[in-house]
């Protein structure tokens, strides 16, 4: 009896407390018309006084409101003075794979082993993560969920951030293979009494060879005539057909040039550089070989005392302005909770060489192109999925990034979070105390 | 034959002494020696300044009995004619571990840290070992002595290089034939100290330099107290420390900042340490001089880096490049600045590098007299041995070297090294010179034989017609052995030539042993050398001479001596900012079209259309002028963050470990930050004292510290102090329940301490308790790292029980839950804008925290705790506009005026107000905007960051880098040694990295 009571109490506590996530919105049934907002299309263009209509989860109209005599459809949202953006996309993220960094039991981002193309992030993706829901109030509505560690970390998938479970969340399943390229320099193991500085790595070439051998073996296996199934090789199938893009996490120039050779040797159609700290030293090679870069988060310090203090701020601009296809990613220290700052990373690149609308591309249309989902998302264009939001002001600036509405696939999603609930709860506490 | 006899006699001569000899002898009859040895016709360097040309001196019983232009030769003299040679006093090394075997690291008992001392009857800390005596473990090391002899050394001051207070060293003569009884000149010559722990114990404390500094101070205080007979227990370490008080105190350091830190402790306790430096003293000459110390300087110049691979060169910083470039000029600069110094062989391959590096220093401007003084008279004086060591004079030890010429001439050979009248032959004085070009006749064939190099180490090359043959020459004791390969390259066959060389080497003849085993005679006749032959020689020879490096241009020292360092420090200016939007943080609010005049480091006038006078006018139209950003919680510019050896470390101070060379100072300036509180980490409930710093890039550590800083200390609560997120399980506390008891216990003791202290003059002064008493008396403020509401509440209750207040809760991520209680208590809150989810205790952290605390009337600040975020604190403040709708004016105060209030410095900084310090930032845009850039950052009226100057500095960095890279490539192509490139990785330090508890 007492036990039952306790369980009941515990249940109530859970519901009343912070364990409840926001309920995913249901399918769009009514058309929505947003009128009067400044529309930032994500492709560099702006429509000052815009008219945007979406139905059944798809955008059906994006145009100048002053020129149109069209009938508004369905629910009308008056948005004069506000701004509409396509939903921001966070590539190379680990959202939903770890809940609390320090609690190992909540950590599912890094499997043991080194060649793991068969390891799939999607099945571990926690659609109900409290950190995932905290993306939405900042306009970050989609992400590529990527496993970490190993030489080939595994296979990523692209999700949207309002779902009951991972299956519902999927935008593109098993979209990419992630490789951590070896470093041509290694760090001394200070705990073993070595100098902690960087030295030339003796096994750099060997590590590349291992990758090449793995690719060759997978290719031979996939040619057929095998007695037994090899899961790792099977997972490489779409890599060779070009359906699974290859993301190589690499930073230094020499390594980048080696990666470019790797792309040629393996005849990979889509290869993306992730990180790319020295990508600006290989711009011509990257362009020639049609390789885009997911630039590491600009809110970071330079790697060396000698580098410009603003180098991480301006790297994306340098690449973009010289014709490399660039988007921003947010990996690094405390990356999951920090991913909601993606719009401000873009804002910073806007201040350092790009301007606002070009900067916006780095978290919308360019990201979609690089991830291969630009047929669905990334811009406010007719036919695209209605994943977009309305902000009070400039969404790339902290002061303006205040969302009033967000839609994923046309569904108006909750902008509440574990954090806003606590905010409301304690605001009320103090309000009632002062009455 | 005659020579050998002479040698014998000389050896015997010095065994006798005036004092009565009392050792029994059972292996023969007594062998008294009363002969004299007279050295004649030498150029004698009596001292660095005094030379006797063609002088003589007399040695008996290991000492000099007479010296001069001409001396009386006693009849029972052995005479050594040194015509054409020079004599120098042999060298003295003050910092050595000669004859002391390397200690083995103690075994660890279990995986857990050790908090108690291993020893009983000694000090409470195992790393204080003043009772250690080098003389007890010393044993003469022949091999090491030989190397030192070759370099010219005669006496070393050796010690056991282990621990923080290391005990006494001993002064040893490198007498090759004496007994220890003769060699030991002093058995307690000096006391040694360092900041490094003993290998003989794993006792945790101290884990940091600031801990080591606090420990040394406490040990001094305790020794003083112990001397008064107040201790109830025996402490052999403190007794030894008292015994060693009057000895020379030598402080070993391995970096420039530590050397200055040693000087700081010396000043506090009125001890003039002799400081072992690291050879980079030139980078902070002024401060080095102010220590008043004599420096012991190593000669370990870095080798050029191996940068032929340009990818590798990228990893090398300008700082490392400059250090390579400048190091050889260090001694010259020390001498020019009248800083007393000696030279040590420490950290050096003596035989290989000592002389060549010393000569290099001379090449880079060190004058010879200063070099000699540093090796002879200066160390002798420090040891109080100037009458017996360092100069050649009557009554001094006969410690000298004989050279073929000027010691500082590369061509000069060291012949002999005499210590206490005992000879070590290094090169034979009478070596016949066989260098030259010869016509070699062998088995009827003619060869060209060229012998080059120093007479005692010649090298050979040989040609048959125009074919070069392999040749290996060895030459010793006037016997020449020459190995030749066959001119027929298809064969592996060798011919060996052997000849004894007479004084006249114009013709060499001897026996040739042919490859078939037969013997025949050969002759080699010297040719009269011609210029063309010599020229040819230089061209094809890759010997020492060709390898010699060109004199490189030495880069100017900048402050700090790295990228973005200033070659000239910013000067105080009169500046008029015209037509700015000024964020005053005062009741005037944000005012447009306003002028601000800066004068004498202060904000002198604020108004419209101010007269420029002689001010530099800066057009600030369209720009925003604010007071500088203040970061309440920072860990930049520090050499250490945590003293984790105890659960309370109130005795340590961040002011001891300020690192003014941290590039993050410059980067913070570029983000508009002018003041930070450098906090101790969060490894323990009671952490160390803070340092409040002005980010005056380029200035020294002491000058960064805010004048008349209010006193602060770091406390910490929660997961870090419980050591939840790593393996440690043995240190109290392991729960939040225990954390409360740590505070209660320490404050109870502090109260008792204060009472007892006030009633007893001879009370033992405890640095930790003194700090806690300051807290109890509200003379020192607490900044407490805190997360969850229970612990915040707890700490306020503990403080209230002891009748003081917590000044600031820092991090305070659940401050919003107890804002009313904080307000009632009177605490401020300094928090992150939006960090959460990195630990379990930040699960309920919300970005609305600052707005709620602010709305409840708490002085609220936003801090960084991170070198990356601190340079964007303006943006972090802007997040309070987004989350919680704080007004822009108030949000801006979160990173300026409010932290100034929390730090009790708002009377001087934190707003744009007439009379306040001109700590100002000129922004390109609204400072809360993501698009804003800091264009100028001023501290006390000096421009420490200027976006235009930054461009110049970038160019300068590129220029200097490429210059030095060229120099290094040259060095490498001359065949000089190179070293692999190593690059220190940057690491961000903040409270919340699991591996780094801050």
Give the second-level CATH assignment, the architecture of the largest domain in chain A: Alpha-Beta Barrel
Number of helices of chain B: 28
Strand segment tally of chain B? 46
CATH superfamily of the largest domain in chain A: Metal-dependent hydrolases
CATH architecture group name of the domain at 629-909 in chain B: Alpha-Beta Barrel
Number of helices of chain A: 14
Average pLDDT score of chain B: 91
Shape of chain A: globular
State the assembly state of the protein chains.
Answer: heterodimer
Beta-strand percent range of chain A: 15-25%
The amount of helix of chain B comes to 25-40%
Helix content of chain A: 25-40%
**Rg of chain A, please?**
23 Å
Q: Strand content of the residues of chain B, in percent?
A: 25-35%
CATH domain fold name of the domain at 629-909 in chain B:
TIM Barrel
On the 0 to 100 scale, the average pLDDT of chain A is 93
**In which order are the strands of the major sheet of chain A placed?**
8-9-10-11-14-15-16-17
The CATH class assignment of the domain at 629-909 in chain B is: Alpha Beta
CATH topology term of the largest domain in chain A? TIM Barrel
What does this molecule look like?
The complex is a heterodimer of chains A (435) and B (998). The longest helix of chain A has 19 residues, at 204-222. Chain A is globular. Chain A has 435 residues and is of the alpha/beta class. In chain A, strands 8-9-10-11-14-15-16-17 form an eight-stranded mixed β-sheet, with helices on both faces. A six-stranded mixed β-sheet of chain A has the order 3-2-7-18-19-20, with no helix packed on it. In chain A, 30% of the residues lie in helices and 22% in strands. Chain A starts with a helix and ends with a helix. Chain A has two domains: 21-87 and 379-435, Roll (Urease, subunit C, domain 1), CATH 2.30.40.10; 88-377, Alpha-Beta Barrel (TIM Barrel), CATH 3.20.20. Chain A has helices spanning 2-16, 130-133, 166-169, 204-222, 231-234, 237-241, 253-266, 283-288, 311-321, 335-338, 342-354, 356-361, 365-371, 418-434, and strands at residues 32-35, 38-40, 46-47, 50-55, 58-64, 75-78, 83-86, 88-93, 140-145, 152-160, 170-180, 185-187, 198-200, 245-250, 271-275, 293-295, 326-328, 388-391, 403-408, 411-412. With 998 residues, chain B is of the alpha/beta class. Among the domains of chain B are: 440-527, no CATH class; 629-909, Metal-dependent hydrolases (TIM Barrel, Alpha-Beta Barrel). Chain B has a nine-stranded antiparallel β-sheet with strand order 21-20-19-18-26-25-24-23-22, with no helix packed on it. In chain B, strand 19 and strand 20 form a beta hairpin. Chain B is globular and about 105 Å long.
């Amino acid at each position: 009896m007492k036990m039952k009571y306790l369980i009941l109490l515990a249940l109530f506590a859970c519901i009343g407390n912070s364990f409840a996530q926001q309920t995913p919105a249901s399918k769009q049934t009514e058309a929505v018309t947003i009128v009067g907002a400044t529309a930032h299309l994500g492709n560099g263009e702006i429509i000052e006084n815009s008219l945007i209509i979406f139905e059944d989860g798809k955008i059906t109209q994006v145009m100048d409101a002053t020129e149109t005599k069209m009938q508004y459809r369905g629910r009308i949202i008056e948005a004069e003075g506000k701004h509409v953006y396509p939903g921001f996309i966070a590539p190379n993220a680990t959202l939903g794979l770890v809940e609390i960094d320090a609690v190992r039991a909540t950590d599912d981002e890094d499997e043991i082993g080194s060649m793991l193309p068969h390891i799939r992030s999607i099945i571990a993706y926690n659609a109900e993560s409290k950190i995932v829901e905290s993306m939405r109030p900042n306009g970050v509505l989609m992400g590529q969920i990527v496993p970490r560690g190993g030489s080939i970390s595994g296979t990523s998938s692209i999700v949207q951030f309002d779902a009951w479970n991972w299956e519902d969340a999927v935008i593109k399943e098993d979209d990419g293979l992630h490789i951590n390229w070896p470093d041509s320099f290694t760090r001394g193991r200070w705990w073993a009494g070595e100098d902690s500085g960087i030295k030339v790595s003796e096994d750099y070439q060997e590590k590349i060879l291992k990758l090449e051998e793995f690719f060759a073996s997978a290719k031979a296996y996939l040619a057929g005539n095998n007695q037994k199934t090899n899961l790792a090789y099977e997972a490489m199938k779409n890599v060779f057909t070009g359906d699974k893009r290859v993301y190589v996490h690499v930073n230094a120039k020499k390594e980048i040039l080696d990666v470019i050779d790797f792309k040629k040797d393996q005849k990979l159609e889509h290869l993306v550089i992730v990180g790319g700290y020295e990508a600006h030293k290989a711009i011509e090679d990257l362009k020639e070989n049609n390789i885009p870069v997911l630039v590491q988060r600009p809110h970071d310090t330079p790697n060396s005392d000698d580098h410009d203090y603003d180098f991480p701020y301006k790297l994306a601009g340098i690449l973009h302005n010289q014709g490399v296809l660039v988007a921003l990613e947010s990996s690094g220290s405390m990356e999951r909770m920090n991913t909601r700052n993606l719009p401000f990373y873009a804002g910073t690149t806007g201040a350092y060489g790009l301007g606002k609308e070009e900067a916006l591309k780095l978290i919308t249309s360019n990201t979609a192109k690089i991830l291969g989902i630009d047929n669905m998302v990334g811009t406010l264009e007719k036919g695209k999925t209605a994943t977009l939001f309305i902000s009070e002001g400039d969404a790339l600036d902290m002061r303006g990034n205040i969302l009033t509405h967000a839609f994923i696939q046309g569904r108006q999603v909750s902008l509440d979070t574990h954090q806003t609930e606590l905010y409301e709860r304690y605001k009320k506490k103090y309000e009632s105390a002062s009455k | 034959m005659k020579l050998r006899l002479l040698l014998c006699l000389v050896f015997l001569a010095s065994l006798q002494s005036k004092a009565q000899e009392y050792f029994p002898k059972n292996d023969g009859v007594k062998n008294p020696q009363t002969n004299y040895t007279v050295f004649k016709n030498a150029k004698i360097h009596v001292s660095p300044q005094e030379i006797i040309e063609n002088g003589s001196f007399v040695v008996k019983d290991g000492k000099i009995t007479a010296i001069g232009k001409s001396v009386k030769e006693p009849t029972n003299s052995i005479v050594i004619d040194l015509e054409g040679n020079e004599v120098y006093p042999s060298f003295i090394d003050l910092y050595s571990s000669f004859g002391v075997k390397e200690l083995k690291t103690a075994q660890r008992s279990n995986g857990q840290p050790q908090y108690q001392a291993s020893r009983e009857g000694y000090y409470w800390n195992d790393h204080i070992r003043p009772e250690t005596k080098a003389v007890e473990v010393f044993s003469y090391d022949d091999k090491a002595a030989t190397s030192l002899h070759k370099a010219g050394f005669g006496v070393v001051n050796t010690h056991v290089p282990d621990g923080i207070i290391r005990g006494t060293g001993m002064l040893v003569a490198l007498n090759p034939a004496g007994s220890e009884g003769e060699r030991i000149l002093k058995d307690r010559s000096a006391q040694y100290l360092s900041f490094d722990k003993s290998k003989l114990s794993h006792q945790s404390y101290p884990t940091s330099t600031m801990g080591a500094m606090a420990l040394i101070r406490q040990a001094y205080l305790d020794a003083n107290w112990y001397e008064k007979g107040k201790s109830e227990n025996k402490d052999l370490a403190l007794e030894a420390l008292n015994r060693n008080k009057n000895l020379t105190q030598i402080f070993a350091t391995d970096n420039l900042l530590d050397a200055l830190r040693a000087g700081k402790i010396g000043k506090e306790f009125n001890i003039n340490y002799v400081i072992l430096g690291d050879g980079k003293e030139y980078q902070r000459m002024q401060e080095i001089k102010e220590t008043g110390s004599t420096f012991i300087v190593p000669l370990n110049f870095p080798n050029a880096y191996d940068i032929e691979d340009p990818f590798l060169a990228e990893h090398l910083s300008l700082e490392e490049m400059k250090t390579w470039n400048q190091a050889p000029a260090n001694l010259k600069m020390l001498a020019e600045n009248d800083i007393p110094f000696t030279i040590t062989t420490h950290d050096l391959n003596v035989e290989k590098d000592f002389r060549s590096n010393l000569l290099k220093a001379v090449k880079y401007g060190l004058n010879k007299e200063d070099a000699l003084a540093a090796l002879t008279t200066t160390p002798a004086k420090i040891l109080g041995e100037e009458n017996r060591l360092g100069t050649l004079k009557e009554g001094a030890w006969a410690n000298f070297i004989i050279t073929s010429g000027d010691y500082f001439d590369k061509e000069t050979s060291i012949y002999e090294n005499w210590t206490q009248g005992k000879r070590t032959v290094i090169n034979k004085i009478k070596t016949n010179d066989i260098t030259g070009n010869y016509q070699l006749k062998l088995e009827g064939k003619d060869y060209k034989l060229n012998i080059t190099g120093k007479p005692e180490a010649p090298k050979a090359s040989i040609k048959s017609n125009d074919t070069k043959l392999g040749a290996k020459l060895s030459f010793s004791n006037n016997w020449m052995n020459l190995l030749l390969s066959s001119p027929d390259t298809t064969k592996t066959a060798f011919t060996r030539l052997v000849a004894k060389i007479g004084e006249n080497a114009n013709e060499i003849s001897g026996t040739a042993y042919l490859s078939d085993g037969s013997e025949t005679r050969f002759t080699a006749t010297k040719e009269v050398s011609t210029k063309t032959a010599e020229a040819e020689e230089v061209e094809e020879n890759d010997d020492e001479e060709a390898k010699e490096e060109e004199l490189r241009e030495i880069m100017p020292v900048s402050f700090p001596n790295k990228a973005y360092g200033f070659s000239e420090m910013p000067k105080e200016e009169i500046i008029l900012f015209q037509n700015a939007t000024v964020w005053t943080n005062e009741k005037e609010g944000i005012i447009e079209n306003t002028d601000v005049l800066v004068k004498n480091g202060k904000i002198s006038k604020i108004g419209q259309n101010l007269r420029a006078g002689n001010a530099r006018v800066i057009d600030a139209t369209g720009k925003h002028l604010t007071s500088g950003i203040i970061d309440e919680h920072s860990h930049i510019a520090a050499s250490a963050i945590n003293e984790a050896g105890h659960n309370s470390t109130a005795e340590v101070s961040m002011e001891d470990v300020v690192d003014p060379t941290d590039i993050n100072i410059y980067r913070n300036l570029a983000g508009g930050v002018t003041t930070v509180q450098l906090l101790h980490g969060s490894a323990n409930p009671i952490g160390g004292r803070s340092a409040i710093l002005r980010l005056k890039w380029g200035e020294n550590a002491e000058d960064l510290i805010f004048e008349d800083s209010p006193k602060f200390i770091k406390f910490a609560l929660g997961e870090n102090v419980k050591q939840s997120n790593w393996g440690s399980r043995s240190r109290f506390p392991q729960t939040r329940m225990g954390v409360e008891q740590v505070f209660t216990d320490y404050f109870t003791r502090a109260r008792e301490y204060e009472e007892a202290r006030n009633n007893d003059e001879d009370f033992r002064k405890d640095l930790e308790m003194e700090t806690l008493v300051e807290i109890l008396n509200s003379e020192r403020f607490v900044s407490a790292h805190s997360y969850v509401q229970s612990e915040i509440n707890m700490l306020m209750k503990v403080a209230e029980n002891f009748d003081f207040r917590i000044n600031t809760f820092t991090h305070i991520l659940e401050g919003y839950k107890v804002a009313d209680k904080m307000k009632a208590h009177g605490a401020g809150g300094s928090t992150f804008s939006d960090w959460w989810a990195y630990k379990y205790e930040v699960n309920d952290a919300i970005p609305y925290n600052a707005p709620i605390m602010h709305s409840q009337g708490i002085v609220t600040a936003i801090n960084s705790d991170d070198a990356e975020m601190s340079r964007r604190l303006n943006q972090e403040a802007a997040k309070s506009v987004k989350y919680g709708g704080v007004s822009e004016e108030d949000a801006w105060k979160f990173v300026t005026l409010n932290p100034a209030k929390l730090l009790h410095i708002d009377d001087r900084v934190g707003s744009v107000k007439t009379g306040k310090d001109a700590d100002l930032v000129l922004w390109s845009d609204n400072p809360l905007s993501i698009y804003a850039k800091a264009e100028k950052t001023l501290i006390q009226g000096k421009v420490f960051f200027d976006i235009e100057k930054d461009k110049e500095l970038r160019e300068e960095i590129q220029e200097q880098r490429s210059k030095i890279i060229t120099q290094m490539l040259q060095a490498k192509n001359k065949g000089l040694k190179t070293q692999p490139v190593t690059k220190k990785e940057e690491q961000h330090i903040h409270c919340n990295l699991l591996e780094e508890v801050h």
